[in-house]
Every structure is written in C-alpha cells, then in structure tokens.
Design a protein that fits this description.
Layout lengths: L2 E2 L2 H9 L5 E6 L4 H16 L4 E6 L4 H6 L7 E6 L2 E7 L4 H12 L1
Parallel strand pairs: 1-3, 2-3
Antiparallel strand pairs: 2-4, 4-5
Family: Belongs to the thioredoxin family.
Protein name: Thioredoxin
Keywords: Disulfide bond, Electron transport, Redox-active center, Transport
C-alpha cells in the first residue's frame, strides 16, 4: 500500500528517507492515475527496498509546482532527498519497473 503524503509528512517520508522513494503525483479526476494505482500498490507489496508514496496535486499544488509537475501521473524518484528520475504518464507494470530501475541505476 502506498503512503499518502501531505506537506507535513513530505520531508520525513521523502527528503529524509534512507531508501529510495517514488512519489506518485496524482489527481482524483485523472483516469491514467487511477490505472496506475493497482500497479503501485502491487510494487509496494513486492519491494521493501523502495518506498511508494502519492501526493494529490489538487490538494498540494505548491509541492507539485516545486518539482515542475505539469501532467498526471508524474512519478519522481528520490534518492537521499534529491530527485534522480522523472517518469511521466501511465505505463504497464513491466515497463514501469524497467524505467524505475533505470532511474535508480
């Protein structure tokens, strides 16, 4: 299960995380975002070496703007508090995992 972020939890869960973090910048009205939820929840259960989180861009537009998120879904991969990869758009699980591994390489 992914962790839902707020401005109060973003620093502790993402920027100060000991392990890499994937932030799913999402919106309730976004069909591709909804399509990715089961994939992210599955990966969260399979991978304990990566934290999977989500942030509602409508509720927290300031954080989305800080990371230049212009379309949903956007997935930003953080390592040691720094963004190391940005994946834009929905994709099948196999491709998402491949793109994620590339971002973490």
């Amino acid at each position: 299960m992914t962790t839902t972020l707020t401005p109060d939890t973003f620093t502790a869960n993402v920027l100060e995380s000991e392990i890499p973090v994937v932030v799913d910048f999402t919106a309730a009205w976004c069909p591709p975002c909804r399509a990715m939820k089961p994939i992210l929840n599955e990966l969260a259960g399979e991978r304990d070496d990566i934290r999977f989180t989500e942030l509602d861009v409508d509720a927290h537009p300031d954080i989305a703007a800080r990371y230049d998120v212009l379309s949903m879904p956007t997935f930003i991969v953080f390592r040691h508090g720094e963004p190391v990869g940005k994946l834009v758009g929905a994709r099948p699980k196999k491709r998402f995992v491949s793109d994620l591994e590339q971002a973490l390489a």
